[in-house]
Design goal:
Blueprint: H1 6-17, H2 30-36, E1 44-47, E2 54-59, E3 63-68, E4 81-87, H3 89-94, E5 100-106, E6 118-124, E7 139-148, E8 151-158, H4 165-170, H5 184-208, E9 214-216, E10 221-223, H6 233-237, H7 239-244, H8 248-261, E11 271-273, H9 274-292, H10 306-318, E12 332-334, E13 346-348, H11 349-353, H12 356-366, H13 370-384, E14 395-397, E15 403-405, E16 407-408, H14 415-428, H15 431-447, E17 449-450, E18 453-454, E19 456-458, E20 464-466, E21 468-470, H16 476-483, H17 486-503, E22 509-511, E23 516-517, H18 531-543, H19 547-553, H20 555-565, E24 573-575, E25 580-581, H21 587-600, E26 612-614, E27 620-622, H22 623-629, H23 649-661, H24 669-672, H25 693-698, H26 735-742
Parallel strand pairs: 6-8
Antiparallel strand pairs: 1-2, 2-3, 3-4, 4-5, 5-6, 7-8, 9-10, 11-12, 13-14, 14-15, 16-19, 17-18, 19-20, 21-22, 22-23, 24-25, 26-27
Length: about 750
């Protein structure tokens, strides 16, 4: 037998080792596919073509059913329904296919002695558009056929079956969005579509829910908002949106209905969230009052300060929440009796530290500086309890001042605390707030930022604890725009838009480390939140780059779908993966989401021409108007004159205010603001301030595909920012340092 020379054997082995790897991607296992499809658990979908006798229903991992079409059901008779099969894990494990397949067996028999019905459901990623008989956007049945007697094949298109972001964006025919400058005609079209969304939701609330707190859009009924069980919450919250959209007639009518809806003001024996009541109700009353007294807007001719009267009464009823040893307010208060018996001492960072805008405006308009003092003291008390790394936890004990949750981030339970530090400076020139914001911003940016995303970290050491994006984090790029940090804002905003591009919604949670949805009931919801549109509005206002308008235009399809899917108004998403709806229309849908969408495409609105500052609930406050209307602080309380015969409650309130404020001189900063020398806020951008060497090593910055909005618009090249993260405050980099970095 001839022998193969050893050198030849070594050569063969070397060639085998050096053989190029197949470029084909590895097929995911069944376990991986099932894990990716987990958000479908409990979801059901129907398929029925016009004119066909039978329709079909598929419930993921539960059953496949056949039902009689509605037109084929005789009057007075029940619809026929047949179980085709129930889910079989054992048979599913045996299936081998290029697509995800599920087996359903043990259905009802075909005839008396026939075989049992069965079905195979095939889930795939579809690039073609949805056909006739299908319902749904992210998941739908594309076809049902019967290749053998009583054996059915159900073809399902599911965006969850797509393995790459590119495939997800091409799903169902793709997301056709324009590029380049947007024409004036198209802007006007989007503006009218946004106004139509608002009018549909507002009219549905007035017709079906008023005077309840919120609308239930699928049942066309009203119900309370659980955290603020007060009447007319949606009406108060959306009052300024009526003014912004130019509906002066309804604004005047709504103002009168609000005053009539609270005959005893807020004398309710009800426990309410201090934070939610402040931002939705108190903020809505104050912004509505300022718009009503603005003669240039010509909104009403019969207004006599009713909204401010209600706001003052509400502010006084919320004030007992601040009576704590630490000055940090309780999270809940009873509007009639004060702090509820047995009330928990645990409050969130956002809930306790996001009251300064509304309480500051209330102090300015009434002359009662106690409101502003209480809110400012709460913010300072929280700031003084920051960690050595300048980080804040999410929950704190208002009695002891100790943190009970050390998780730190910019998402839920934290977000608006940082927002109000900066906006208090912008609205009131509060330099203490600006100093606190600078330190908090720099700490957040240096510890929680992971590429273009933000993680939750431990406040004491900065160690990452959770790599989940939260819907509420989407406000952060807007705050970065206000601070002047436009380049980083653009990067993060693009990253957040990729989630919308993938799923057509922005879920409450998203695992950005593994680029997948968080398959929990809460994590999959999208309750029509405004934060992504809000940040896009500020970015477009700062850059005037129309690519952000194109990015925002993709929201209309989803919002118009939920408006059509609800019987009235617009319904929240119960599941971002399937676009299933739930019976809820939060008040912030009208107060924020649609309002920001409208303002994006209405550059001639009066809001864009004056120095308005938006609260966290998107209530606009004009800094110049507030300064003009500011009353002298009431340093010494004086007894109000006795009531006049047949005097109204409103007249009595104004009489008391006049007795304690006399004339209206110029603003006295020393009584309710701390005097400080203004700082130099502008710091030139340098590459030294924008480098994340170790995060780049992890590859986070390259994991997302930019949306149709520019990654860094060209208009940013010469921009400056007011906050310099990772740089010494207010110290511009030396020219030598810039030259070294450029090398």
């Amino acid at each position: 037998m001839p022998r193969v020379a050893m050198p030849h054997v070594a050569l063969v082995i070397a060639l085998l080792l050096l053989r190029p790897v197949s470029p084909l991607k590895k097929t995911p296992t069944k376990a991986q596919q099932d894990d990716r499809l987990r958000p479908l658990d409990g979801s059901c979908f129907a398929f029925a073509r016009a004119g066909e006798f039978w329709g079909y229903e598929w419930c993921h991992r539960r059953w496949v059913k056949q039902f009689q079409a509605a037109w084929a059901v005789p009057p007075g008779e029940r619809r026929q329904e047949t179980t085709v099969g129930t889910f079989s894990p054992a048979l599913t494990a045996r299936l081998r296919g290029n697509v995800t397949e599920h087996a359903f067996s043990d259905g009802e028999r075909c005839g008396r002695r026939g075989t049992k019905r069965r079905a195979t459901v095939r889930l795939r990623c579809c690039s073609e558009r949805r056909g006739e008989g299908s319902s749904g956007r992210n998941v739908y049945i594309s076809d049902v056929n019967e290749p053998a007697t009583c054996a059915y094949v159900v073809e399902v298109c599911a965006r969850l079956a797509c393995e790459t972001p590119e495939e997800r964006r091409k799903f169902g025919g793709g997301d056709q969005i324009g590029r380049g400058p947007m024409s004036l005609e198209l802007r006007q079209s989007y503006k009218q579509r946004a106004k139509a969304l608002f009018e549909r939701g507002y009219d549905a609330y007035v017709r079906h829910a008023e005077p309840e707190g919120e609308l239930r859009p699928r049942s066309c009924s009203g119900g309370p908002f659980d955290l603020v069980k007060l009447p007319l919450v949606t009406l108060v919250d959306s009052l300024d949106a009526l003014a912004i959209m130019g509906n002066s007639t309804e604004f005047q009518s709504a103002t009168q209905r609000i005053w009539q809806g609270f005959p005893d003001k807020f004398n309710f024996d009800v426990n309410v969230s201090v934070f939610e009541t402040t931002i939705r109700v108190l903020g809505g009353l104050l912004s509505g009052h300022l718009l009503a007294v603005d003669a240039s807007l010509n909104l009403t001719t019969e207004y006599d300060g009713e909204l401010l009267a209600l706001a003052l009464d509400l502010g006084e009823r919320l004030a007992p929440a601040f009576e704590t040893p630490t000055s940090i307010p309780y999270g809940t208060v009873n509007l009639r009796y004060g702090i509820p018996r047995g009330e928990t001492p645990v409050a969130s960072l956002a809930g306790a530290g996001s009251l300064s805008i509304e309480f500051g405006v209330l102090s300015a308009l009434t002359g009662d500086g106690s409101f502003s003092a209480k809110a400012s003291a709460a913010s300072r008390a929280l700031y003084e309890r920051r960690s050595p790394q300048n980080l804040f936890g999410k929950h704190i004990n208002v009695r002891s001042g100790k943190w009970v949750e050390s998780l730190s981030g910019v998402g839920s339970n934290s977000d608006s605390f940082y927002e109000y530090l900066l906006k208090s400076y912008v609205l009131f020139q509060d330099h203490d707030s600006y100093r606190m914001f600078e330190e908090a911003y720099s700490a957040i940016d240096s510890t929680t930022r992971q590429g273009d995303w933000f993680a939750d970290v431990d406040m004491h050491g900065g160690k990452p604890r959770r790599q989940h994006f939260e819907n509420l984090q989407a406000f952060w790029p807007g705050l970065q725009v206000l601070s002047g940090d436009l380049e980083l804002a653009s990067r993060s905003l693009n990253a957040f838009w990729t989630i919308w591009s993938d799923w057509g919604a922005l879920p409450e949670e998203y695992d950005f480390a593994r680029r997948r949805l968080v398959a929990t009931r809460t994590g999959l919801r999208y309750p029509l939140r405004p934060e992504l549109i809000e940040a896009t509005y500020f970015m477009h206002r700062a850059t005037q780059d129309d690519s952000w308008l194109w990015a925002a235009s993709r929201v209309f399809e989803a919002l118009e779908d939920v408006a059509e899917g609800a019987r009235c108004g617009a319904a929240s998403f119960a599941n971002a993966a399937t676009h299933a709806l739930e019976d809820e229309m939060p008040s912030f849908y009208l107060a924020e989401t649609v309002k920001y969408l409208y303002l994006l495409f209405d550059e001639d609105n009066f809001i864009s021409k004056r120095p308005y500052v938006f609260s966290t609930e998107a209530h606009p406050f004009d800094a110049e108007q507030i300064k003009r209307l500011t009353r002298a602080p009431r340093l010494v309380e004086t007894m109000a004159p006795p009531p006049v015969k047949n005097e109204s409650t409103l007249a009595a309130l104004w009489r008391r205010l006049r007795a304690t404020t006399t004339t209206r001189p110029a603003l006295r900063k020393k009584h309710w603001r701390r005097r400080e020398q203004p700082r130099e806020p502008t710091v030139p951008v340098s590459s030294r301030c924008q480098h994340w060497p170790w995060w780049y090593d992890l590859g986070y910055s390259s994991t997302f595909e930019p949306s149709l909005a520019s990654t860094v618009p060209s208009t940013l090249s010469d921009r400056k920012r007011t906050v310099a993260p990772r740089c010494y405050a207010n110290e511009a980099p030396d020219d030598d340092d810039e030259e070294e970095d450029s090398d």
